[in-house]
Design a protein that fits this description.
The protein has one domain: Rossmann fold. The termini are far apart. The mean pLDDT is about 95. Helix 1 packs across helix 7, helix 2 packs parallel to helix 3 and helix 3 packs parallel to helix 4. By secondary structure, the chain is α/β, with parallel strands linked by helices. The protein is globular. A 7-stranded parallel β-sheet has the order 3-2-1-4-5-7-8, with helices on both faces. A two-stranded parallel ribbon has the order 6-9. It contains 13 helices and 9 strands.
């Protein structure tokens, strides 16, 4: 089977290309940057490029994007050009050749202001039914691209599926306060409770979405899925979770405290949102392997809790320059 993967020089693009090639598929990797997995250097905004890359493709994994770390370094117009116009160009080319599946990599950032409830309120339980309220140009353009996918499903009968991924990047947190208060491994371990996912699990979700897109979109309509590690929390935890996360985690994952003490780690005092992956597990048959309990098992044995794929890809960064204030400037 022939796959087109956009953003092939990025974290997810490389992960998809690596996996597909290992499975014996024909892969076209498209990116503006050269890389071991980029077969065509070009932009998704260039129609001739997208049309040429689409020839013979049966599945499109559209992972190319300007990310949140680019908000302070790129113009709003550049975000629109890449994230909206580029997606439109790909959708038109995909519809023209009749690809079997089009999987769009979106982000939980589209939820925006819905992720942070007012002070004194319980933590937010984030499912696909929560209405997005983007708070920056990144979220706005990703949400707009989702709408384009829905338009092409509706009017061109293109089997489009949207995957809203949570954090899987290996770079340090963008918050100076968080970086100063917690080690990087501690931060990421905590995040597996509510807002992080391993890239190996992200790839498996994409493969399942590509396989099932025609059936799902025919039977259930246009589908969006949250792709995040399975949380141990339940709805009844939300009020306490906002202000006393350590106690709630201790109840849901007994023994984590001892593991944390050995590493001199600490839990966040409060957690403000929980991403819920139940729909993806139910409808896609997705079975994510990396969650907080697995992290605890790995850490207790002195092992790296990242998947082999995550370790192989490593950190790429988002900019050519180094910033004194952190991994990237924050708007």
């Amino acid at each position: 089977m022939k796959f087109l993967v956009t953003g092939s020089a990025g974290h997810l693009g490389e992960a998809l290309c690596r996996t597909l090639l290992e499975l014996g598929h024909d892969v076209v990797g498209l990116d503006i940057l050269e890389s071991p997995y980029t077969t065509v250097v070009g932009s998704i905004t260039e129609r001739l490029v997208t049309v040429g890359c689409m020839s013979g493709a049966e599945v499109v994994f559209h992972a190319a994007t300007l990310h949140k770390p680019h908000v302070a370094t790129h113009s709003r117009q550049e975000f629109i050009d890449t994230n909206v116009t580029g997606t439109l160009s790909l959708l038109e080319a995909a519809a023209a050749v009749g690809v079997r599946s089009f999987v769009y990599t979106s982000t939980t950032s589209v939820f925006g202001d819905a992720l942070i409830p007012p002070a004194g309120s319980p933590a937010a339980w984030i499912t696909e039914d929560v209405t997005p309220a983007p708070r920056n140009i990144y979220g706005v353009t990703k949400s707009a691209a989702e709408d384009l996918c829905q338009l092409f499903w509706r009017n061109q009968k293109l089997a489009c599926v949207v995957l809203r991924t949570s954090r899987f990047f290996p770079e340090e947190d963008d918050s100076k306060d968080v970086r100063e208060a917690f080690s990087d491994g501690n931060v990421k371990a905590n995040e597996y409770l509510y807002r992080r996912v391993d890239i190996e699990d992200v790839v498996s979700a994409h493969l399942l979405a590509a396989e099932r897109a025609p059936e799902l979109t025919s039977e259930l309509g246009f589908r969006k899925y949250i792709i995040s590690a399975t949380t141990p929390f339940q709805r009844e935890d939300l009020a306490r979770l906002r202000n006393d996360a350590p106690a709630v985690v201790g109840e849901r994952v007994p023994g984590y405290e001892a593991v944390y003490r050995k590493r001199d780690w600490k839990m966040f005092p409060g957690i403000d949102r929980v991403y819920v992956n139940e729909r993806a597990r139910r409808e896609l048959g997705w079975q994510p392997r990396y969650d907080f309990r697995r992290v605890m098992e790995s850490v207790s044995r002195g092992k790296d809790f990242r998947s082999p794929l995550a370790r192989a890809i490593g950190s790429k960064g988002y900019h050519d320059e180094v910033f004194a204030q952190g991994p990237y400037p924050v708007e």
